[in-house]
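Budget justification aside, the reviewers requested a transparent look at the raw inputs and outputs of the sequence design task funded under Objective 1. We therefore reproduce one unedited record. The lines immediately below are the structure tokens for a 308-residue chain.
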């Protein structure tokens, strides 16, 4: 496949929301606030998970990793989007576009798999409570996180070059606010069906397979909870899983709608707002979901704030 000399030399133009100039200022203010909250919230989760020894457990190890991923996910494109929303310059260099696409694909894939790992952790906690620490020993936790990162990197290493080297016949305008794979594929002036089908295959492996594991884990968890006779015990088991289930629903709902459609048939405006949702709104909400529903995290936060 041939790379366009124009795009590699002059970069790309991120159209974003420039067709709605009145909306740009509103979006800048809202996204700046949401991004600031996301950075503060996820950094706080990572900090308390490191500083509070009571949180040195598998569940909070995975939660700290999730917060780190959310930070990377948002930072991969939101600062660039804020720059483009603020001023007339809507350009991004070719190298910047490559880095953005690679980061977006790798981190997004890792998060899909990490959420499945966290579901397995909740299954072990609820269904095998007496053997929980034996099952989820530190070496296994590290291996599971390594598998998640390795899988995400493989996806990015394969799909980023294939996407960027599609011939675009001098086209530089990306009808999106970031260098996202579906938008870049749509710019191609050659038959890109092979790349689209490969992306769809990766989506099955990285999105649907982990989601299936999550659903199976929660099926076993639901069966175990129903066997608990006391209402207090059922409530405790539900609280253990509710935060993770909420995060899974928010993240996977938008991802599946975006990527599990052959040819990416969602409208362009719809795609922009959906990307904004799982790239910014979900990372902003995750710390709030885990903090508001988790007494241990709230206690750890209060303890850290008292130290200051």
């Amino acid at each position: 496949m041939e790379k366009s000399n124009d795009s590699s030399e002059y970069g790309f133009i991120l159209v974003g929301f420039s067709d709605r100039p009145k909306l740009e200022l509103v979006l800048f203010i809202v996204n700046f606030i949401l991004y600031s909250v996301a950075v503060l919230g996820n950094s706080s989760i990572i900090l308390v998970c490191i500083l509070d020894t009571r949180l040195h457990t598998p569940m909070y190890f995975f939660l700290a990793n999730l917060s780190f991923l959310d930070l990377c996910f948002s930072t991969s494109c939101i600062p660039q989007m804020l720059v483009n929303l603020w001023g007339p310059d809507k350009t991004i260099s070719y190298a910047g576009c490559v880095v953005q696409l690679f980061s977006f694909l790798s981190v997004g894939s890792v998060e899909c798999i990490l959420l499945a790992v966290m579901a397995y952790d909740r299954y072990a906690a609820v269904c095998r409570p007496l053997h929980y620490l034996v099952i989820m020993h530190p070496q296994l936790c590290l291996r599971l996180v390594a598998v998640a990162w390795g899988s995400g990197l493989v996806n990015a290493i394969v799909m980023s070059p294939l996407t960027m080297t599609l011939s675009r016949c001098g086209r530089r305008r990306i009808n999106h606010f970031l260098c996202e794979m579906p938008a870049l594929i749509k710019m191609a002036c050659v038959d890109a069906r092979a790349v689209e089908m490969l992306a769809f295959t990766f989506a099955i492996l990285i999105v649907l397979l982990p989601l299936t594991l999550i659903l199976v884990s929660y099926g076993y968890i639901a069966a175990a909870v129903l066997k608990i006779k006391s209402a207090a015990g059922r409530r405790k088991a539900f609280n253990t899983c509710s935060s993770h289930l909420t995060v899974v629903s928010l993240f996977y709902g938008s991802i599946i709608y975006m990527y599990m459609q052959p040819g990416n048939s969602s409208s362009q405006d719809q795609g922009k707002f959906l990307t904004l949702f799982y790239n910014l709104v979900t990372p902003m909400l995750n710390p709030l979901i885990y903090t508001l529903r988790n007494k241990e995290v709230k206690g750890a936060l209060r303890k850290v704030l008292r130290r200051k």
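Residues 1-5 have pLDDT under 50 and may be disordered. The radius of gyration is 21 Å. Computational costs for records of this kind are itemized in the attached budget.
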